[in-house]
Amino acid sequence: MAAIENVFNLSELKEFQKAALNELMKGNDVFLSVKTGAGKSICYQAFHPMWTKKNTDRLCSILVICPLISIMKEQTDYLCRLGFSATYIGKDSKEDDDIRMGDFDFIFSSPEAIVGNADWRAMLLGPAGERVRLLVIDEAHTVLHWGEGDGYDEPFRQWYGKLGELRSLVDCPVLLLTATANRSARKKLQQKFSMKNCHEIVDNPERENIKLFVHKVKASTPLDEVFYFVVQLLQEKKNSCPRIIIFCTSINSCGQIVTMLRLNLHDEIKYVQMYHSKIPESIKDEIKLDLDNPDGNIRVLIATSAAGMGVNFKGVYNVINYGPPKDMDSFVQEFGRAGRDGKTSMALLLFHGKQCKNLDSDMKTYVTNTDQCRRECLLSAYNSKPTSCIKHLCCDVCDKSCDCNNNCSNYQHPFFEFVPSDISSSDSSDSDSLCFADFTI
Question: Structural domain tally of the chain?
């Protein structure tokens, strides 16, 4: 392992990385679920030099399925800097030809390119496919979230639902990577990829440094009142405004919030940016570069889940979800972008009743909970329990019973400093009550 650590400039591999690599080298499938930023990628990156050292007379390619081009670019650039040959399908015609010849150590692809294209499927059945020694599904939770319909809508990306077909095209172990997957999701994914005797490495998804808040507002509340605190912070602090990420459940919601901010801000609007799947790749690259700098120009990012993957957020200690994601895994992925450096952070879920259709059972429980520790409620979806936590640092429910005599108000979310009392909705008899009849479980 020492040679591997030198290649990747690591002091030493973590125990879960060693365990995953050992199982893969035995030819076993691995399901790896550890926290965002823990170092999942090293488990397939290091596999290549380990395999080639053991099999000096054979070539090795690793096929990695990624949801976003931005992730592919980031990973291929990194691997090339380390001296590996890496590319992604569709980058350019010359490199596509070289992929067909089996000339790359690492091949990245979207599901649409590799499963939805007859030519690339045929490639996997030829000599180049025979060199594939490991199949990796990065952000594996998207296989279920994007590849399956919910009874109302068609799948967001149907080829994600067909990724299991790759198992019949390449003869090698499979590595599934994700930051969050509850027991039900793990079982479904392992069935989809025909993973027998799969070695599971599952971490408790708790983020001890993030305080959890939930607040319900009236559906009739104008956005400029809901996000009044954002306007105030930008006007007062401008480029020194604490960086905030606001996740929305749709591109339309992103646009509505940005439009509202344009109407309420002047020059400060230059500190606001939007990120979703329809944003041009060149602009996404500029945004990513800015967010990689904790003192960057972007102080407020309005985003969909597209920014929940493949974007390195630095200096973010406040994440807001405007409307609950459909499932707990997505929620944990998104608010987990806060406090990546371990510093105390905040995650606020703002919602109204009309945003609560089609939630899964775990997310519904979390949204409707008013008296149980939010961390305890969240972790119950993963059969985990929270570690001990100071009450005023845990969640807004535990905060109410804190008796530590410290200045707990220092850990209150800025939303509550500015929020008008009449925008809150707490009466279940309101017309804004949760639409439980519309939930699809």
Answer: 2
